[in-house]
């Protein structure tokens, strides 16, 4: 039962983060990587890129991507395409469609298997 609660919480958090992307038109704009933030955790280092781009009003904004990498990639100065929901430039991110697909696929699979296990349906 606890496992099912954890999976449902994970799905809810992922959907909550993606809700503005589902409800609003998506803007695709170029952005420049300006630095990497480092995070030390469990004996390892994680890097996440910080990028700068112009929002709908032409004002420049810096946003830190939420995905940590084991190395500083993309490199500083590189131009990347980012996406954000119209009206929410602070939610900009580098699109990782495979990552998001695998995340939802894995959580969905766990949800289905746990429901089958708890209900004894199989």
TrEMBL record:
Residue stretches spanning the membrane: 102-121
Keyword line: Membrane, Transmembrane, Transmembrane helix
Name of this chain's protein: DUF3592 domain-containing protein
Organism, scientific name: Parasphingorhabdus litoris
Lineage: Bacteria, Pseudomonadati, Pseudomonadota, Alphaproteobacteria, Sphingomonadales
């Amino acid at each position: 039962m606890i496992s099912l609660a954890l999976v449902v919480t994970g799905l809810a958090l992922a959907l909550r983060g993606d809700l503005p992307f589902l409800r609003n038109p998506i803007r695709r704009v170029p952005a420049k990587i300006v630095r990497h933030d480092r995070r030390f955790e469990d004996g390892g280092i994680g890097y996440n890129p910080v990028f700068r781009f112009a929002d709908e009003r032409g004002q420049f904004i810096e946003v830190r991507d939420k995905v940590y990498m084991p190395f500083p990639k993309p490199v500083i100065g590189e131009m990347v395409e980012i996406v954000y929901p119209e009206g929410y430039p602070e939610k900009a991110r580098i699109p990782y469609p495979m990552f998001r697909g695998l995340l939802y696929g894995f959580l969905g699979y766990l949800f289905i298997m746990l429901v089958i296990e708890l209900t004894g349906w199989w």
